[in-house]
């Protein structure tokens, strides 16, 4: 009898693990294959070989790039090199990235920048918010950009118990922002277990010096976050949920869910076109390949875009259109970081 019971229990555990494994592989798009394609207007920018995690661009064409992220479980192209913020003037014919100098007093050796966000203050002062992971912890660094000498003046380091595992931020004031936490747990074993079991415990937090609060939760892996140009809507990419969530933002900085855009790929960072309001997402076509990084079988990248109309229409379900035709992972070459999205996947507009 004892043996039978043990056998039955073992069977149940195996079935549960098997079921979780299948669900996990689905969330990771583990069997998805894309044929590499070359994009004629896409070329490598020299000087960012160690990867560019995030980009934010000022209206005058100055692009800020965070580079050199080291993230547990992910391939790093230069594990011993500290991270940096690069500046590139997109108005130039052949723009080249230059490293921004950071004011003294900031601990540069452990700089590990992740998501970034720009905020232009009333006096036209430019603030740069940078998610940082010194010793794999999470902080948000606030800098002021000094254009005259290509430098960043460090203003403060923000740490908070509600910000344990920050991925990306979107600034809403000179010292306030929304941030995504991409894990609930911070301990390595537990955070892998969390992903494997498919817990939806990651969240979005609003931070200001006066108030810090959770404003949305229920994501498998909250990743990129951004805002509509008029500031009325907030967009959150759920990497393993394969969705972009659309929220309405209120004057008291709470969010109410409005809509979800279902994708067939793993969305990472989100950019918003300041003129049209279109969302552009850099995505990972196959999360398993990203995790198991094999230089002989690169994970690739793809982009997804959603027009403002599609994003906001209440009853229209956005669906990716003809992925195969428009898809093209990063061209062959040594710097595939799956961080350089190169394709465009149009949404069918059902509005
Ligand atoms: C915030 O504002 C929204 C919309 O005006 C309202 O429904 C909500 O109750 C407010 N929440 C808090 C906590 O004040
Ligand atoms: C986001 O990441 C994609 C690829 O993952 C990259 O191509 C894109 O430049 C980044 N976009 C911005 C503006 O953050
Ligand atoms: Ca960002
Ligand atoms: Ca990200």
From TrEMBL:
<dbReference type="GO" id="GO:0005576">
    <property type="term" value="C:extracellular region"/>
</dbReference>
<dbReference type="GO" id="GO:0009636">
    <property type="term" value="P:response to toxic substance"/>
</dbReference>
<feature type="binding site">
    <location>
        <position position="54"/>
    </location>
    <ligand>
        <name>Ca(2+) 2</name>
    </ligand>
</feature>
<comment type="similarity">
    <text>Belongs to the paraoxonase family.</text>
</comment>
<protein>
    <recommendedName>
        <fullName>Paraoxonase</fullName>
        <ecNumber>3.1.1.2</ecNumber>
    </recommendedName>
</protein>
<dbReference type="InterPro" id="IPR008364">
    <property type="entry name" value="Paraoxonase2"/>
</dbReference>
<dbReference type="InterPro" id="IPR011042">
    <property type="entry name" value="6-blade_b-propeller_TolB-like"/>
</dbReference>
<feature type="binding site">
    <location>
        <position position="167"/>
    </location>
    <ligand>
        <name>Ca(2+) 1</name>
    </ligand>
</feature>
<feature type="glycosylation site" description="N-linked (GlcNAc...) asparagine">
    <location>
        <position position="252"/>
    </location>
</feature>
<keyword id="KW-0479">Metal-binding</keyword>
<dbReference type="Pfam" id="PF01731">
    <property type="entry name" value="Arylesterase"/>
</dbReference>
<feature type="binding site">
    <location>
        <position position="53"/>
    </location>
    <ligand>
        <name>Ca(2+) 1</name>
    </ligand>
</feature>
<feature type="active site" description="Proton acceptor">
    <location>
        <position position="114"/>
    </location>
</feature>
<feature type="signal peptide">
    <location>
        <begin position="1"/>
        <end position="15"/>
    </location>
</feature>
<feature type="binding site">
    <location>
        <position position="116"/>
    </location>
    <ligand>
        <name>Ca(2+) 1</name>
    </ligand>
</feature>
<keyword id="KW-1015">Disulfide bond</keyword>
<dbReference type="InterPro" id="IPR051288">
    <property type="entry name" value="Serum_paraoxonase/arylesterase"/>
</dbReference>
<feature type="binding site">
    <location>
        <position position="269"/>
    </location>
    <ligand>
        <name>Ca(2+) 1</name>
    </ligand>
</feature>
<keyword id="KW-0378">Hydrolase</keyword>
<keyword id="KW-0325">Glycoprotein</keyword>
<feature type="binding site">
    <location>
        <position position="223"/>
    </location>
    <ligand>
        <name>Ca(2+) 1</name>
    </ligand>
</feature>
<keyword id="KW-0732">Signal</keyword>
<feature type="glycosylation site" description="N-linked (GlcNAc...) asparagine">
    <location>
        <position position="269"/>
    </location>
</feature>
<feature type="binding site">
    <location>
        <position position="168"/>
    </location>
    <ligand>
        <name>Ca(2+) 1</name>
    </ligand>
</feature>
<dbReference type="InterPro" id="IPR002640">
    <property type="entry name" value="Arylesterase"/>
</dbReference>
<dbReference type="GO" id="GO:0046872">
    <property type="term" value="F:metal ion binding"/>
</dbReference>
<keyword id="KW-0106">Calcium</keyword>
<dbReference type="GO" id="GO:0004064">
    <property type="term" value="F:arylesterase activity"/>
</dbReference>
<feature type="binding site">
    <location>
        <position position="268"/>
    </location>
    <ligand>
        <name>Ca(2+) 1</name>
    </ligand>
</feature>
């Amino acid at each position: 009898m004892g043996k039978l019971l043990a056998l039955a229990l073992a069977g149940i555990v195996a079935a549960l693990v098997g079921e979780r494994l299948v669900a996990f592989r689905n969330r990771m798009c583990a069997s998805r294959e894309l044929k590499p394609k070359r994009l004629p207007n896409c070329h490598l920018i020299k000087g960012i070989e160690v990867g560019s995690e995030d980009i934010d661009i000022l209206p005058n064409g100055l692009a800020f790039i965070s580079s050199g992220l080291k993230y547990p479980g992910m391939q790093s192209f230069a594990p011993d090199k500290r991270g940096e913020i690069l500046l590139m003037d997109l108005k130039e014919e052949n723009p080249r990235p230059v490293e921004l100098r950071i004011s003294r007093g900031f601990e540069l050796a452990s700089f590990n920048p992740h998501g970034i966000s720009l905020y232009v203050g009333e006096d036209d002062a430019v603030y740069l918010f940078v998610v940082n992971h010194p010793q794999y912890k999470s902080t948000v660094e606030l800098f002021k950009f000094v254009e005259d000498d290509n430098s960043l003046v460090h203003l403060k380091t923000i740490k908070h118990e509600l910000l344990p595992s920050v991925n990306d931020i979107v600034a809403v004031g000179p010292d306030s922002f929304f941030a995504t936490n991409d894990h609930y747990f911070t301990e390595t074993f537990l955070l892998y277990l969390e992903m494997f079991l498919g817990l939806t415990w990651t969240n979005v937090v609003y931070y200001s010096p006066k108030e810090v609060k959770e404003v949305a939760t229920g994501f498998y892996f909250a990743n990129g976050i951004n805002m509509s140009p008029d500031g009325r809507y907030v967009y959150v990419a759920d990497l393993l949920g394969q969705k972009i969530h659309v929220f309405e933002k209120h004057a008291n900085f709470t969010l109410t869910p409005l809509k979800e855009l279902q994708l067939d790929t793993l969305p990472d960072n989100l950019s918003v076109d300041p003129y049209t309001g279109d969302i552009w997402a850099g995505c990972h076509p196959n999360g398993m390949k990203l995790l198991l990084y094999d230089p002989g079988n690169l994970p690739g990248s793809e982009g997804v875009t959603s027009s403002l109309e599609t994003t906001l229409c209440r009853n229209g379900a956005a669906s990716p259109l003809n992925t195969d035709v428009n898809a093209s992972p990063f061209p062959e070459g040594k710097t595939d970081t799956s961080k350089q999205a190169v394709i465009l996947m149009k949404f069918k507009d059902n509005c």
